[in-house]
Amino acid sequence: MNLVIFGAPGSGKGTQSEFLIEKYGLFHISTGDVLRDHIKRGTEYGKIANEYISKGLLIPDELMVQILAAVLDANKDNAEKGVIFDGFPRTIAQAEALKAVLAERNMEIGAVVGLEVHEDELVERLIKRGKDSGRADDNLETIKQRLEVYHNQTKPLQDYYIAEGKYRAINGQGSIDEIFARIIDAVDNL
Ligand code: AMP
């Protein structure tokens, strides 16, 4: 089983992924974490990624797909058990590329779990995370830019996956446990 966990910045993708990994034994690929790791290690990818991340913009599709495919290939055995894609795809072009990258490896997406959260709550959560974790892109100006990018470039993926019959809308508001119970319900009924 391969899942995409989908939603705006601050919708709880990372938090809920941790629970999903535990319950279903999935391999977690968070493209945000992968990019932050490149930045920390000072790689060429990291240098390029930092330019975009600090401005709240998306890394160009072609580069992002290249980075993702490399992670999949470096973790072949883990990926066979099923993957949870967190923060990827973020554009229609990435979704198309993901389909192709997975097909080449005899894999496909089973479902897209869409965490739906009101915009004012997203901003509140991200500001809190910025204070707690010190993530540099969790400042008000960059948060606003990231939400705009989400609306323009990422949200259209909802309709893309609805058309494929794969989108499962989850109310992403409430306690972490309540939200996780809704996700389990959706996933177990696939
Ligand atoms: P995240 O941790 O998922 O919120 O991602 C942090 C930042 O990394 C985003 O604001 C983007 O700049 C970049 N990023 C993460 N995933 C992607 C992706 N799939 N495509 C393009 N940029 C990405």
Please provide a written account of the structure.
Helix content is about 60%, strand content about 15%. With about 190 residues, it is α/β, with parallel strands linked by helices. Helix 1 (about 15-25) packs across helix 10 (about 175-190), helix 2 crosses helix 3 and helix 7 packs across helix 8. The chain is globular. Bound molecules: adenosine monophosphate (AMP). Adenosine monophosphate (AMP) binds near residues 32, 56, 59, 94 and 137.
Return the average pLDDT rounded to an integer: 97
Bound small molecules, by name, code or SMILES, are:
adenosine monophosphate
The largest β sheet comes out as: 5 strands, parallel
- The gross shape turns out to be globular
Identify the strand order in the major beta sheet.
2-3-1-4-5
Give a nutshell description of this structure:
The protein has 190 residues and is of the alpha/beta class. It has helices spanning 13-24, 31-41, 44-53, 61-74, 76-80, 92-104, 119-133, 140-154, 156-163, 176-188; strands spanning 3-7, 27-30, 83-86, 111-116, 167-171.
Q: Main attributes?
A:
alpha/beta; 10 helices; five-stranded parallel β-sheet; 190 residues; binds adenosine monophosphate
Q: What topology emerges from the helices and strands here?
A:
Layout lengths: L2 E5 L5 H12 L2 E4 H11 L2 H10 L7 H14 L1 H5 L2 E4 L5 H13 L6 E6 L2 H15 L6 H15 L1 H8 L3 E5 L4 H13 L2
Parallel strand pairs: 1-3, 1-4, 2-3, 4-5
The structure holds adenosine monophosphate.
